[in-house]
Each structure stands twice: as C-alpha cells, then as structure tokens.
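Hi all, long-time lurker, first post. I run a small reading group and we've been trying to get comfortable going from sequence to structure in the token notation. Rather than ask abstract questions, I figured I'd post a concrete chain and ask someone more experienced to write out its structure so we can walk through it together at our next meeting. Sequence below, copied exactly:
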Amino acid sequence: MRRRLWPRSPAFWFLFPAVFALAVIGIYPLLVALYNSVHQYRLADLESGTPFVGLDNYVATLTDSTFWQALGRTMLFLCLALPIEIALGLFAALMLHRPGLAWLRAAARVGLVVPMATTYAVVGLIGRLIFNRQFGVANYLLGFFGVQPLDWLGDPTLAYVSVMVMDVWQWTPFCALILLAGLTMVPKEAEEAARLETRKRLTILWHIERPYLLPGLTAILILRSADMLKMFDAVYTMTRGGPGAATEFISVYIERIGFRLFDQGLASAQAMLLLVLTIVLSRLYIRYIYRELA
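-- Answer (accepted) --
Happy to help. Here is the structure in token form:
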C-alpha cells in the first residue's frame, strides 16, 4: 500500500498557510540572523567570504560602549513611557467602564482605534510636523502662554521627550482597550456589592477588579516592551536618531551597524542579544505579575 504523502485532514490544510507564513516570515529570517551572527559578513567586503568567527561578534557587542549606551536609552524610554501609557489607559478604561455610558463606550472604541491603526512611519512624520520649530502645533500652543518657540527636534532632551509623547499618543488607546476588556469581565454583582460596602474607588479596583486586569496587563507589558525594544520606524522618520545620538535607540543603532557600516554579522549578533533580552523580560512579567492569578 502506497503511503499518502499529503494528509487529507481538513485541519492540516487550514493550518498550512499560517504555518508556512510563520516559517517564511519569522523562522527563516531568525535562522539567517543566527547564522550571520557567528560569521564574518560584511556587505562592503563580500570578496573575503563569510568565514566562521564563533562568538567574536557577541564579544565585540558586549564590549561596545556605544551598544550599551543605545540600550540604556531604550530601557529608559521603556521605563518612562510604558508606565505613563498604562496609567492613562487605566484611567480611560475606568472612565468608560462607568455605568450608563454605553453610547460613549461605543464611540470611544472607534476613536481609540485611530492612533493604533496609524503606521509607525506616519506617526514619525506627524511628530515632525507637530514639533517643527517654525510652524509646529506644539510651539503654536505654547505661544498662548507666552513661551518662546522651542527647538523640539534640535535639543537632545526635548527630542527624547517628543518621541515619547508620540509613542504615548499612539499606544495609550491600546492599553485602554485591553484594560477595558478586562473590566467588562468583572461580575456586575461583585461590583455592586463592593459599592455597597465602600465608596473608595481604589479599594474596589484593588480587591475586585485587579484579578481581571492582570491578564491584560501582562499582555500589555509583553507586547509593548517588545515593541519599544525594536521601535525603529517612528524614531527614524522623526529624528533619524538625533540630534547627535539622543534618540539613537538600540534598533536604530543596529540598523546603522548593519546597513550604514555594512557589518551584517555584528548587527545580527546585536539583534540576537536583543531577542534574548525580550524573552527574559517576558518571562519576568509572567512570573511576577501573571502568577498572582494562581
């Protein structure tokens, strides 16, 4: 009896396109990056080939002070912007969760999707217009308070803040929608009973609603941390990593090494270390936040 080369199960054929896309878009580039990270691969010197260099690229990365500076700027951005997004998102979710606002929740869901649906590159271009020194909206609004025009994208600190403002604008709605979904899972009977016991909103939030918010909060931390560690488009279109190196986050630095200095091997090693850091952060979030549900 001849063995069938292709299974006849419908489940296989439904899963095959997704698995194939994952392999082509995700797994194959990962394997290529891993291969390049242990080889010498310079685009400007392809005649020398791609000899195996072992862990030399990783050692060069770990001893590169510029790499650590870029990573430090990225981690500082994560530690500043992410709590703001979660706090504002939680505030918006609590406001929309109030009884008797069904029509407002429906309209808000539509409005909150707009920033999330905007691509990163467009967000960066919008940021360049908003924070332009000559005709930007930011300086126009400050003029009403008698503040002189600021060089938002020319000052290192202000450029860093400008990128943070645009990221908070784009992703606070995401946090609000995820947390609002968690609040809708809270039993109404439990909330009503808690309101009869106490009028302190923080008490109800901590003892009644917190367990339903933790899964969404964990998802926000994992997804947004990964996004911030690899954010490139918005920063590059808005500041090009400048002024100087003020907004040269780790992804912008890796791009400079790989496509402006043409050292694909070193850039791949840096990208693999960034992947390891993302996995470690995700495991920490799951261990210390999500486990509270157990």
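A couple of things your group might point at:
The longest helix spans residues 65-96.
The chain has twelve helices and no strands.
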